[in-house]
Every structure is written in C-alpha cells, then in structure tokens.
Amino acid sequence: MNGAQSLLRTLVDAGVEVCFTNPGTSEMHFVAALDSVPDLRGVLGLAEGVVTGAADGYGRIAGKPAATLLHLGPGLGNGLANLHNARRACTPVVNVVGDHATYHKQYDAPLESDIEAVAGSLNGWVRRSGHPADVGADAAAAVAASMDAPGRIATLILPADVSWGDGGVAVAPVPPRGPRSTSDATLDAVADVLRSGEPAALLIGGDACRERELLATSRIANATGARALVETFPARLERGAGLPAIDRLGYLAEQAAYQLDGVKHLILAGARSPVTFFAYPDKPSDLVPEGAQVHTLSDREHDVAAALEAVAERVAADVEPTLAPSQPPAVPSGGLTPQNWVEVIGALLPEGAIIADEANTSGLLLPAATANSPRHDVLTLTGGAIGQGMPVATGAAIAAPNRPVINLEADGSAMYTLSALWTQAREGLDVTTVILNNNAYAILRMEMQRVGADLSGPTAKALLDLSSPGMDFVKMSEGMGVPASRATTCEELAEQFARAVAKPGPHLIDATVPPLL
Amino acid sequence: MNGAQSLLRTLVDAGVEVCFTNPGTSEMHFVAALDSVPDLRGVLGLAEGVVTGAADGYGRIAGKPAATLLHLGPGLGNGLANLHNARRACTPVVNVVGDHATYHKQYDAPLESDIEAVAGSLNGWVRRSGHPADVGADAAAAVAASMDAPGRIATLILPADVSWGDGGVAVAPVPPRGPRSTSDATLDAVADVLRSGEPAALLIGGDACRERELLATSRIANATGARALVETFPARLERGAGLPAIDRLGYLAEQAAYQLDGVKHLILAGARSPVTFFAYPDKPSDLVPEGAQVHTLSDREHDVAAALEAVAERVAADVEPTLAPSQPPAVPSGGLTPQNWVEVIGALLPEGAIIADEANTSGLLLPAATANSPRHDVLTLTGGAIGQGMPVATGAAIAAPNRPVINLEADGSAMYTLSALWTQAREGLDVTTVILNNNAYAILRMEMQRVGADLSGPTAKALLDLSSPGMDFVKMSEGMGVPASRATTCEELAEQFARAVAKPGPHLIDATVPPLL
C-alpha cells in the first residue's frame, strides 16, 4: 500500500465519503488510488474556489468533513476565500495539498511555494506528512482535528514521494473532541438574568440555529419576554412552517441597533458578540447597546442545544414555543422587482429545500417572504468572501441528494466561481440556480454611501457597474451543460422555477431584477 | 487629501498608470479617489485571478508595475496563483490590499484575515500603512520595491481608516535598485570557458530573451560552437523573422537531457540552473549533465544584456548572429490536429503580436510553427499555476494597445479565469483567444504516466476527462460579450483567425483539437 492508498483508506474508515478535487501532477497518485478505494467519491471542480466552497456546503449539511485535493500553494491560494468562509462557519474540512517530492524541494522548481504560510492563515490544523508510513496516522489526526468541536479547517500537506512511496498503513479513526457542557452555575446565572425582568435578548448563531435550539429559544422568549435573534450570517439556519420564526440580526448597523435597542442583557448561545461587518466612519463597530451586559451561555465549542434546553427547563418548563404557520405568499405578477421576486420563491419553495443564499442586496427581503414556506435550511455567506453560493450549493447537493437545493445568487458574486455549474451538470445535481441579475455591484453602491465615500464621479460609478457588457447567464450556463432560461416577470420566474424544481438535475434561471438602490 | 488620494497621486507620480481592481467595501475610498486622480486608469476584473494575472501581463510588457486593488485576505488569496506566476516571472506588481479600519480589527469581524501571512508567502515586499500621513511614503517605497532589479511583488496593506483619514501627502518617486554589473573577472572567466573548445551551452532566461540578448547569444554561439538555449518558461521571449531563433529547453526531462547531452560547461545568463518541473520516480531532478560545470554569467539581478554583449565582444567581435528568415508556413487543410493548428497560427500571425501561451500539451509544436513568422513576443506560464493565459493576455493588451494580442489557451486552463473575457469586452481590448478544446486535462494524462501512477482505473480516467459535459466556449464567450465562433478544420480556423485579428476588439475561437496523447 502506498502513502496515497493509506490516506484514502484512513479517510474512508473515519467516515469521509467525498473528495472534491482539482488535482495536478503532484496529486496523480492520490487520483490513481481512488480506483483502489472506491468508497471515496471523487468530485471534480474546474477551479479551486469551487472545490473548497463545495466542501463547505457539504460539511454544513453532512455534519462531517469532505476532503479536498489541491495542487501546491497556488491551488490552496485559489481556494482560500471559500476556506475563509468555511472557517467562519466552523465547517469541518480536510484539505489534502500535494507538494513536490521531499528531495525536489531544494531545487525551487517553478511551483515551489510556501504552503504552510498560506494554510497557516486559516488558524486551523496544519501538518506535513514526512513518510509513507506516517500518512495514515496523519490523515486520522486531520479528520479528528477537523471535527473537534465546533469544527475547523485541517490541512495535510502530502509530498509526491510520500504519496507514491510504499509502506503506507491505514489507521483507525481518532475520536474528535466533542462539545463542552455549559456549567450549572452558568445555566443558573443566565436563568436569573432572564427572570430579572430587565430587557434581554437571546442571540443564537453558528449552526446552532436548528430545530432543537429554535424550539428552546422560542420557549424562553415566550416565557421571559426576552427578544430572540439569530446572528446575521449563521452557518446553517432551519426555518419555515412548523418551526419558530426567529429574525436574523440585520446586516445594516442601523437595523441591528434598532433590534437591540434598550436591551440590558445580551445572552449569546453559539453566536459571537455582534459587531458591524465593516467599520463606518464615526459609527461604533460594537453593536452591543451601551450599558448592556453580555452573558455567554455557550460559545461555539459548547453543546448549544443542551444549554438552551436546560435554560428553557429552568425558565419555561410549561411554556410552548411559537411555530410559524404554513402560509406561503401568493405568486405575485408583473415585472420582477427586488420586492416581488422573493415572493415567487416563498410561494413555490419545495418542502425540505436547502437554500444557498448569496443574493446579497437583492435578497434583503427574502427572509420575510419565506418565513411561512415549507421547512427548509438556509446556508449563508458566513465569512463575507463572495463567490461562495454556487460552490456551497454544489456541495450541499452532494451531501443531500434527495433534497432540492436552491441557489439564490447575485450576478457579481456568481462570476467568481461560475464553473460550479459544470460540476453540477457532470454530477447531475438537483440544484436550481436563480441569478439575480441587476448588472451591478449593488452592495458596493450601498456601502460606498455608508462609508462616506463620494460616488458621484464617473470612474467610481463605472467600477460598480456591470452592465457594459451585460452578462448573459443563459448562454454561460448552457455553455457548461446546465439548461437555462431567462425571466423578466413574476409569471416567467414562477413557471420556470416550478419546472426547474420539478425536474431532476441542475437548472439556471437568469432573472432580470433591477437594483434595490 | 485623504490617505487614498495620496496613495493614488504617489503611484501616478512614480509612473504607475493602471490599477486592476476587484474592490470591496474597505476599498471604497480608493475607488472614489480614482475620480480625483484621473491619470490612474481603473480596470475592473470580476475575479481576483483576473486582476493579478492582468497585472502580470501588463508588467511583463510595460516593464513597470500595474497596481492591483484587492479585498482583504480572501481577495488576495483568490489572486495568489497568478501572483505566484508573476513572482516567478519577476514581474513588478504593486498590490494594494484593503483591510478593516485599525480600530475595527479587534472585533474579529467576518472578513478579518491574516493578510500578512498570505502576502508573505510570495517572498516579496510587504508593508502595512498605519496612518494617512504615511501612505504616500509607503506607496513610493512599494513601487520602488517592485522595481528593484529584477522585479518582484510588493504588497501594501491599507486599513480603511488610513484610506479615508485626512493628512495624506503625495511623495516623490524613490529610485529603485538597478541591475548589477557583471565583473570583468566573471566576463573573462566565461570567455575563457567558451574559448576552451570544451562542449558548452549558454542558457538565457527570465525576460533577458529579447533582441539584445538574442543577438549577443547567437554571435557567441556562432563564434564558439556553444549551444544556445532559452529556459523552458521565460517571462518574455522575443522571436520570429529577423531575430535569432533559439530553442527553448524542453519541458520533458528526456528532451532537456537530449538538448544538454555531452555539455561540459553550462553558462547561465538570466536563467536558473535547470531542474525538472516536477519530481519523477527514479529520475534526477537536476538537469545539469553529470560532470558538467555551471557558470553564472549573470543572474536575474544583473544587467544580462550588457554581460552577454561584453562576452560577445571578447569571443565574437567580428561574428554575425544568425537571423531567422521570414518564411511562415502555409495554411494547412483538413480537420484540426495538434500538429496542424499551430501552422495556421504560424501562417497568419500578425506583425508585432504578443502571444500569451497557455496551450499546454496542444501547443507543444507551436514554437517550430512560428519561428519564421513575423516578429512577436511570447509570454509563458512561468510559475506553472494554470489559469494564467487569459488574464495575462488582458493585461498585455492594456500595456500595448497598438499590438495584436493572441491568447492560445487550453480548455482546462481557461476555466480558472474565464471572466477575463468580460474585462476584454468592457475595455475593447484587441485580444484574439483561441481555445484548444480537447475535452481533457491532457497534461495530467501525460504526467500520470510519467510519475508512474496507474491511470487504467475508471475513476482516475474520469477525473482527467472534461467531456461530460463538453464545454461550449462559444456560448460562454458570447455570454460575456465577446463575439465567438467554432472551428473544426484548418480552413475554418484560418478564416476565423484572420478575421478576428483584422477586426478591433476581442474575439474568441473555440477550436476543436483532439488530444495529443
């Protein structure tokens, strides 16, 4: 067994089922080994941002890591933005980064690169395998490291000769470090705060925004009057009919300030203390209201659901949660606007959907329009590095082949990792992509005003404008093998969306939606 | 004047004319400042790999840096692969990477990232501006650092509040460190070696493969019998009718070994001692023939042209160079093959063309087919990180608006940075792209055999196959505003290529060429 074979065998034994790959020469023995370890499914991406973003989407849905296969420092670099998003989501990911053979590194060949420096920027786990006999143990450690609560990026650097050399040994899985428990003292203290009668807010986040956490949060809110909120960009949020509808904290600081106004106690459960996404001149970065006390019930390393349920037991033993009714909006009519397209989605969202939401400004009204639609998951742009939605949708569809995946995607963001469509076509994934095509970096138009920059000049205006030339996503999609159509009215979007969702395999709708601003 | 304005003013004063941008919120004051400093041309790319690759192509042709504008660590990460290629080319590039405001960093907001670690992996120059009053001096230092012989990547990190804060001061250019001179002792020693009668080879490289270096090298070779060679992947190679035709060292080790067989003295001028691109089991990485002595006439920090001319003066005072005749091949006929498509290009290459060559396996026969075509420049894949050709062509066209740019591009490589087409359309650049569409990662098929990996399994085979679904580059190109056509025969390619070259603005030809292997 060579190093690569022992790596694959160990990954599979530890429960890894998928490897998203964009390999080069140094990774050829890994690729060859896939035929001897058929339980690991190799999924090809045409660019590394697709590979790493797909691993993020996969991990958020599967709750365990996919592997990636990347080519030296440049390959890891190309994948870095979506690894950044995965890091912020605490998604478990195991990167395998091929490197030159150990004896080749001294020659500083053209692809020689500082892989450790790039991987190290992710604040995760990094190791370099030195010998084929070590690869199995290194792989088992990598999987465990990625799964240590709450989850992180593990990067294993695999020199070519360590991959092809004999002496590999498959190693049994290493148990990851599970979540910590919240102490009774903390539970009691938080319960006391909630019972105090002073205005309180309970902010949940991360992937602790699922059925158990939502139910407990709603019960606590109903019993104590505390405001319940979800952080702005949760890794995975369950919502829809039959679940408590809990608003997300607004992206705009003004909105968040309004939601938290008057709060004296802010209780964090799986969420971090809220700050603005960017700094804005003469505005505070910290969103905690002045004079409010912050209480951490549980951070991301804790068992958040257990903590919330224990608090609910203390303060809301006999109180029921409030569940959203099943009451999707009607399909609107007329030309598409930022206000009405979301209602088309809300009206027609299929049961059990996974929404990969990178609609940005076009999607500001989406949460309201889908709150009473059938139950679904939402995966958000956790790290703010755009170009994430299409790969995340791709990975989510691999993780949940029986669930419809809906990718709501801004035009500017789509262009970073558009070739995810090709992977969707190749793998026959059930992804419906709706491009919100407003011919602009609309988010930057909004931000430019907010940071006090002057956007009146023609050059600045032009650099936020994507209309010259306009992009035809129908053609681009068809060019990568994904059937596509164009919608300019609600009726067209409704008809095309319903048809796309009903038919297996990927589809794309290029929806012409004017900018919100 | 705010920090951003002082930055732009200083860049322009130092000769920087172009900034390739993919900005985010932290960079909005830089974007706004472009209207107050109109001499800096902002060119928008839809992904960072386009931005950094364009800066590489621009710098290789212009001989001075373009700036890039990137958004925090993820933006720099997305651009890292093409910065790696630029680093290997010793292209001067000035990255401006926006960061959170200084007081915002403590909050670890979603986009907080380790920019220094990522930038540091490039072994260039990195500085963080701390105050608006320092930005001008930092920018002047960055430009100088990028231009220090032989050229490198300079990265200036610009916090948002340093950008928007008042007190900026434009600073006069700082003279970069020029090339070193080769000592007379070295010149004499190399001349002695060349006169010794022992078999010698003279290897030139970097961007020291232009008229002066080629003429001197040819004279030396003619006078002494030394073999003249260009390194495998030079940053910029001038060639064609009227210039000495000097072969490049082969990519395949077997070919390079043949070219260097029997050599006792290997003289390096702007080239590094040759090594294989990758390690191959049981084959040496070092391509210097056993027992041969390596003599460095000049490394990349030297004035290579002056050194070669001084040697020519010593050993070839009255000897003429051999110049390639003007003798382009005839246009062949019939279905396209890896053998004949290059002759179509050779037959119709316009005078003064710049070729961005990322044709990979499909282009192995290109040099022979264009050796007697009109004079042209070739820009190659210096760092081996694919996805470079389309951005490099884009940047070259910005640097040389009056020269036809020809991008010969493998299908797999094209998919990393395809949105360069949109920038070409937006800017009306005169780039003719020929996609060599063989539906495969053909280079990996070749490499898989060469590294001794078993490619007989169906999974391994499938992961190197791009035919399912096949990619329609005509549609993708039209979707980004670049007119496109498909060619399957030499006649079609010739007709379409001649038409594309004759007409201003970008064009793409999707050429169906079967794999070489």
From TrEMBL, chains A, B:
Gene3D superfamilies: 3.40.50.970. Residues 372-510 form the Thiamine pyrophosphate enzyme TPP-binding domain. Residues 1-106 form the Thiamine pyrophosphate enzyme N-terminal TPP-binding domain. It comes from the Bacteria. Keywords: Thiamine pyrophosphate. The keyword Transferase does not apply. It holds the Pfam family TPP_enzyme_C. PANTHER family: ACETOLACTATE SYNTHASE LARGE SUBUNIT ILVX-RELATED (PTHR18968:SF86), THIAMINE PYROPHOSPHATE ENZYMES (PTHR18968). Belongs to the TPP enzyme family. This is Acetolactate synthase large subunit. It comes from Haloechinothrix salitolerans. The lineage of its organism: Bacteria, Bacillati, Actinomycetota, Actinomycetes, Pseudonocardiales.
